[in-house]
Amino acid sequence: MRHHRHNRLRISTLFLLLIGGCQKAPELAPPPSAATGGVRLEIQYNAIRALAYRGSDAMKDPGRLDVLAEMLDEQKQLQHFRLKLKDGRDVPDQGEAQTTVESALKAIAALHRKRPEIDLSRLYPAIEQVAQGSNEVLKQEARKTQVALGIK
Question: Which of 35, 55, 111, 122 is deepest in the core (most CB within 10 A)?
């Protein structure tokens, strides 16, 4: 009986998807701007990380390097990434902020390994700031990045 219900559910879902695909999508109100901004920011950050890890020529663009520098700014990340608590309070998402900074550091090291000719010196002050910060995990990763870049 359970197997039969599961198949019916799958068929019903498939039918709804097929019917829905044949009709115009309903107009939906845009999500709140903060949420939209957060999603856009995550997409942008993921794209920059991917370009850096691949050693893409696109990372020669100073604008993209500026995004990496922004990703290294933990305070800015604490402003960007927020959590809504059950009691309604809006608080920084410290885990997401740390992950963003840490992944940026790793992406910078990977970019340098693959493309040592790309001038990353504009990122050195931001990396140094992380290395001098209070977050031990990020300090350690920043020091590794500095060693990988040959600046420490």
Answer: 111
pLDDT in tens, 12-22: 444 444 444 44
Q: Tokens 């002050």 — which residue?
A: 125
CB of 74 within 8 A of CB of 134? no
The conformation of residue 7, written as its DSSP 8-state character, comes to: H
φ, ψ for residue 30, nearest 5 deg: -65, 150
State the Cα torsion 146-147-151-152 to the nearest 10°: 100
Residues whose CB falls within 8 Å of the CB of residue 152, separated by 6 or more in sequence, listed in order = 143, 146
Q: Is the entire prediction scored with pTM above 0.85? A: no
**Phi/psi zone of residue 101: left (φ > 0), alpha (ψ -120 to 50 degrees), beta?**
alpha
- The C-alpha angle 26, 40, 109, rounded to 5 degrees, equals 150
The domain spans of the chain are: 32-149
Tell me the C-alpha distance between 70 and 73, whole Å.
5
